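User: Please fill in residues for this 133-position structure.
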């Protein structure tokens, strides 16, 4: 999981930064302990579940230049097979994009919001009902 403390104090942000480095080095068990510690201390977190799941592929749109985003998203969705999901991470709710995807894929697209907070959107776009290749 990737955690971004919502607490605005400098000390909390510094702790989060140093702990995040430790988490990257020491693995997933440390992530759970770190999150539990933050929650017990009352520090709110935004969390994006980045643990590997079968047939779930993460697409973080925040790292793609705005002018290329829709093309990149359409390409990524286009290579998914039936039963696969693209976990889409963005900084805003992509309502026009969802409408475009629905137009292209119709009943073969499922849309599931996993997180819908200002500045933190996580959506699972699933593909269903396509012929197996």
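Assistant: Residues filled in for all 133 positions:
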């Amino acid at each position: 999981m990737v955690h971004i403390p919502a607490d605005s104090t400098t000390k909390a942000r510094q702790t989060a930064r140093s702990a995040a480095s430790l988490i990257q080095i020491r693995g997933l068990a440390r992530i759970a302990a770190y999150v539990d510690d933050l929650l017990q201390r009352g520090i709110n977190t935004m969390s994006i579940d980045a643990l590997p799941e079968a047939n779930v592929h993460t697409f973080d749109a925040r790292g793609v230049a705005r002018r290329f985003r829709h093309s990149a998203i359409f390409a990524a969705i286009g290579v998914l097979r039936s039963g696969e999901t693209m976990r889409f991470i963005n900084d805003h709710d992509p309502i026009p994009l969802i409408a475009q995807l629905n137009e292209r894929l119709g009943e073969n697209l499922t849309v599931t919001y996993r997180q819908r907070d200002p500045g933190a959107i996580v959506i699972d776009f699933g593909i269903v009902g396509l012929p197996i290749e």
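For context: Strands lie at 2-5, 45-48, 56-60, 85-90, 109-117, 120-127.
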